[in-house]
Design goal:
about 100 residues; alpha+beta; 4 strands; about 35% strand; globular
Length: about 100
């Protein structure tokens, strides 16, 4: 699922606004049709870890765009004064088949 996510970042003063667009079908299957901020945070942490991004996440919002068949996640990313964060385990349900074979 992580390779199917579209990303956009906008610099706003001392932080970035991060916008992720997740295909509806993949999100709803993975998270048992539960669109929640908690699941959005899980995706954000996994996505940032996957891309080795040390941004700290704040102000997470999630919206289900049924017309566009996507789940949209918005969050603030902070880097100022940020130390390297330890990686987190990525569960199999978020990995690609290619990763699982290795």
């Amino acid at each position: 699922m992580l390779n199917s996510i579209s990303e956009r970042r906008v610099k706003v003063r001392d932080k970035y606004k991060l916008y992720l667009e997740v295909p509806e079908k993949e999100y709803l299957f993975t998270y048992d049709r539960n669109v929640s901020v908690e699941n959005a945070k899980d995706i954000l942490w996994q996505y940032l870890n996957y891309h080795q991004d040390d941004g700290r996440v704040e102000n997470v919002e999630i919206k289900h765009d049924k017309n566009n068949h996507s789940i949209n996640i918005e969050a603030d990313l902070l880097y100022k004064g940020n130390d390297h964060t330890a990686g987190r385990y990525r569960p199999n349900y978020l990995r690609d088949e290619k990763e699982l074979r290795h």
